[in-house]
Design a protein that fits this description.
2 copies of one chain form a homodimer.
Chain A (H helix, E strand, L loop, with lengths): L2 E5 L3 H10 L4 E5 L3 H10 L1 E5 L3 E3 L2 E3 L10 E4 L6 H8 L7 E4 L6 H6 L6 E6 L2 E6 L2 E6 L3 E5 L5 H13 L4 E3 L4 H21 L16 H18 L8 H9 L8 H7 L7 H13 L5 H16 L10
Helix pairs in contact in A: 6-7, 6-8, 6-9, 6-11, 10-11
């Protein structure tokens, strides 16, 4: 693997691009023209856990993309559809790696082409300081697995390259247990953060008093686990333990769904909570708490179209 | 009834004070000194559905209160405890009328004195424009009923005076059916508005698509009705119908809990959702949806003490 295209240069895309540039030719497909211009002019800086300054070839025009063997799709869930449409009909032998939050991204990719697909979940995190500077905060793993008929050797090739670039990665014969662990975790934590305004801090694990937020998160995790079990998935990690561990890990993490809500941007609720709720309905597993969070976040998104008037009480 | 004291001059307190001043001597106990000074200097203006300019004797010092036969407690739930403490030991023959949102205010009053208590709920609404100007928007009824051993004749006396002042009022032998109707309504609507940022608009009654917010509100209403039934209360109005009607009533209402959240003020969640959840637990009625809203609003309040740091994802 010599040439990699990163689609979507948010925090995760930038972390991949910055590291992979040390071992590959890296192109970046951005959504905004200015973002591509800034990357071409200044390169991409990664600070924090790594300290890198990478040269990348960025463009917002899919026609201008140089050929590549691997594309890493790292858009937000809300940008997935349009990103995949830009790739449709191009680079038919390239491998597409999905590392979005939630589940269901592979189906969207497949609907637009016959590329071999590698499923991914990443536990890396960072903070975006500018279009050309991202801070690497948690140097945790990315897990990859085959989707449909993708040979495992191909998954391992991608994993090897990512590892040579200095990132932590694991190739798994079946990613779904990990994907679902993260799905249940994200579905329990992210909308709760988005609705309360709390970063993912100690409140999420607190179960001392009856009113403590941890009870709610625990209830959400239990619903999610029931759906996973009904779908025949044996979870790789217990989402409640993931939650407790994450809240003990120093500075509280600020989930992107909370940022989206703060910025009045459409959230990733569809691929996260939406996927889980639909799977629950398909398998007759009751998910009242996730349905409630789903309706509340959708309501929140709707509120940005509303200008309030009227009386108080 | 010649002398009435209004405790708490928010929207509801100001509407009572402004109207009652046309038939009684009205004193007002405020929380803030400047509020009392402004009322004494400028009087109290009511615009909108009524057009009044009232003289009131306001003070923030309970020692300076003139005697009265009736006090109307119209603080927010969060200001109840300190307001009642100010009255403790004073005016033992006065009747205390509670018109707070939620349930449980009467118990707080009783804990501080042996006054006869009249329970109230009010459906009036308005908008506060300044310390001395409130706009009267919905001229809907206030309902009163006896608490414990309070003679019904006393309830009727209070109702008569309020009616002479030009407000709509009804005296009921048992207020609990109305109080509980409003409790279930408020518990279903107010936290949902506070968490989504939506005013009480058409979304709350929408049940066309599976994701529509109305399903959630309906589920909350059903939980609330189950608790009321277990408590032996036959509801005066169906809270779901109250919800549907209210959303069809022209300009969308902006619940005070949403304003509190916008202003990062402590909300009335304890007397509303908290009362309902505790009653559900006491009577072994499951209230998972209300418990979730409760935990989310408490989390929201906690978030104002947190300054976020850390990475994104």
């Amino acid at each position: 693997m010599e040439r990699v295209c990163i689609v979507g240069a948010g925090v995760i895309g930038s972390l991949f691009a910055g590291h992979l540039a040390s071992v590959c030719e890296v192109s970046v497909l951005t959504r905004r023209r200015e973002h591509a211009d800034a990357l071409n002019e200044n390169g991409l800086r990664v600070s924090g856990t790594s300290d890198l300054h990478a040269r990348v070839a960025a463009t917002d025009d899919p026609d201008a993309l140089p050929p590549f063997e691997v594309a890493i799709l790292a858009t937000k869930a809300t940008g997935l559809q349009s990103a995949v449409q830009q790739l449709a009909g191009r680079f038919p032998t390239a491998t597409i790696v999905t590392v979005l939050n939630g589940i269901g991204a592979e189906e969207v990719v497949r609907a637009h082409g016959a590329w071999p697909i590698v499923s991914g979940v990443t536990f890396m995190s960072g903070t975006r300081h500018s279009d050309t500077h991202v801070e690497y905060i948690l140097d945790t793993e990315t897990w990859l697995g085959p989707y449909e008929e993708t040979p495992f050797a191909l998954v391992q090739d991608v994993a090897d390259t990512i590892e040579r670039a200095g990132l932590k990665v694991e190739a798994l014969p079946d990613l779904r247990p990990a994907q679902w662990s993260k799905l249940v975790f994200n579905a329990s934590v992210n909308p709760t953060a988005a609705l309360t305004g709390l970063p993912h801090d100690f409140h999420f694990a607190q179960e001392t008093e009856p009113v403590d937020l941890g009870h709610l998160v625990h209830g959400l995790v239990e619903e999610g686990k029931a759906v996973a079990a009904a779908a025949g998935i044996e979870l790789h990690d217990d989402p409640w333990e993931m939650n407790v561990l994450a809240t003990q890990r120093g500075a509280a993490h600020y989930p992107s769904m909370l940022e989206d809500v703060d910025a009045h941007r459409q959230t990733e609720i569809e691929l996260i909570t939406g996927s889980l709720v639909r799977e629950g309905e398909r398998r007759d597993v009751p998910v009242p708490l996730h349905s409630l969070l789903y309706a509340l976040v959708k309501g929140k998104e709707a509120s940005w179209q509303v200008s309030p008037t009227g009386g108080q009480r």
